[in-house]
Amino acid sequence: MVKTKILITGATGYIGRRLKNRLLAHPDYQLRLFVRNKRKVGERARHLVEIVEGDTFNKDALAEALENIDVAFYLIHSMGADKDFKSLDRISSENFRDACIAAGVRKIVYLGGLGVKETASKHLLSRIETGEILSGRPDDITTIWFRAGVIIGSGSASFEIIRNLSQKLPVMVAPRWVNTKTQPIAVDDVLSYLEEAVSLENTGNTVVDIGADIMSFREMMLAAGRVMGLKRFIIPVPVLSPKLSSYWLVLITTVPFKMAAALVEGLKSETVKQNDNAALLFPNIKPMSFESAVQQAIAEIEKDQVVSRWCDSSAGEACDVIYQDDPSSAIIRDRRVVSCEGIPPEKVYWSILSIGGDKGWHTYHFLWRIRGAMDKAVGGYGLSRGRRNPKELRVGDALDFWKVADLKENKRVLLSAQMKLPGKAWLEFSIEGDQLIQTAHYYPNGLWGRLYWYATNPFHNLVFQDLAEKIVEQARQGA
Ligand SMILES: NC(=O)c1ccc[n+]([C@@H]2O[C@H](COP(=O)([O-])OP(=O)(O)OC[C@H]3O[C@@H](n4cnc5c(N)ncnc54)[C@H](OP(=O)(O)O)[C@@H]3O)[C@@H](O)[C@H]2O)c1
Prior knowledge:
Blueprint (H helix, E strand, L loop, with lengths): L3 E6 L4 H11 L4 E7 L7 H4 L3 E4 L5 H8 L4 E4 L10 H19 L3 E7 L8 H13 L7 E7 L2 E2 L4 H12 L2 E4 L6 E2 L2 E2 H13 L6 E5 L4 E2 H11 L5 E4 L5 H11 L4 H10 L10 H5 L8 H13 L29 E8 L5 H9 L11 H13 L20 E2 L2 E7 L3 E6 L5 E10 L2 E10 L1 H33 L1
Parallel strand pairs: 1-2, 1-4, 2-3, 4-5, 5-6, 6-11, 7-10, 8-13
Antiparallel strand pairs: 9-12, 14-19, 15-16, 16-17, 17-18, 18-19
This protein binds NADP nicotinamide-adenine-dinucleotide phosphate.
């Protein structure tokens, strides 16, 4: 039987990663991933799929990725870009559509956001424009354009916000936007729609709005509390500006200011389904209730089975860990060497892989926490992203205010700093013979960069030596 050839773009992102896993289980599909950094693709998948490296601004790479493809998923956005994300999204979607047509692709499947133009936030407007561009040449290619509101799944930004607020605050004063109606959907249901879209009979261009029950953010927080066995009270206040609400979310939840502001902006207007195409075209899919979606997300977290998180991708103009695996441009270094004689290298590697997140950074938790709080105060991630999985890391994973830039089994772990810094920094762990070599690499930006380094040096002296020693100690205990 001839297999359907499918291209997934955004395969290192929140939805794309999960869709890849879902479609891999399908014997009649042959998958190709279009990614900006192939090392972000997990080890197992690397052997099961074709991978083309590139981005949608590179037409040659697009042509290569789309060769012989039947169905192409567009799961990309540029919301994380410092530059004008709207223009990037426009160019990206035009390039993609034109390359699909040139390659003879039968169908584009796109996932955008729910909502109408008249009241859309600027991010949603860009998602709508992307959909319009992708479906702008109906005579040449069919586009199935799904539109989803809040997606509930482990690691999704909206779910993390709801979970954090419900868990941490028994009583909440909440702004007016918490009463805005939206139509959440479980991530598994989103994947079911995307999966079924591959074999959907010829419909021509179609917009499919997806969602379960209509609810407000307030109802979602109360329901999430109930699922977690927590009784919550929400007291509405008439005045709490979007900016203040965003700062509030940054303080209580794990998301950074930019994301909180986008979410609050989005919640100012209703995002509910405008058509019934989901029920008409996909009658077998019955979206689960909000409560079931929350239960499923919590179960995944508790079982350490979070497949993807909102912070996996950079969704900016470039991948955030590409070209980050070589810290040789640094000009200042702090090197610590600890003997690990008699300990198998895999134990030392395992011990390195388990740092950070809920467990912390060994002894000087309070110093790490102060650094995290300082970072959050200036708009960084702080320590709040934690880690996806307590034992396992993959390239591209967020680890508190670091990102995993390189992993070489039993040899090397390289973290690239994403904290707000006057320079660039890395933390490298190498296992060489019977030694653990831990090096902090730093490239200062001008005088401020140097001053920062020397001002923080006393703390580095405490923290870095302790970290290296504790990693070895933990490895020895586990040996
Ligand atoms: N997540 C949600 O809650 C949600 C809700 C409603 C709708 N949606 C829609 O679902 C779609 C996917 O969202 P997501 O949450 O999965 O996004 P995401 O996690 O931010 O992932 C974005 C992906 O796009 C890749 N990418 C960005 N720019 C690219 C470019 N120019 N060329 C190639 N790859 C590029 C990123 O690669 P890197 O890994 O290299 O950065 C990453 O894999 C979006 O259209 C979004 O609007 C999502």
